[in-house]
Amino acid sequence: MAQSRLCTTCQVPLSSDDVGIYLKLVSLTAQQFLCIDCLGVKLNCGRDPIEKLIRYFRESGNCALFR
Description:
Layout: H1 16-25, H2 36-42, H3 47-60
Helix pairs in contact: 2-3
């Protein structure tokens, strides 16, 4: 069974969207990740802009991280 990934800040289980947007915005080679809420704090933008980016990448169909 695969080990679930946890946010390095708040320890909540990560979804594929959490991992995908972290890879897209921070580093494609990352091994540790932040949840959307903690990433929003780190990027000083909050959760909403990150969720909008996820929707955009998913709807565009051009990003393999969100298919």
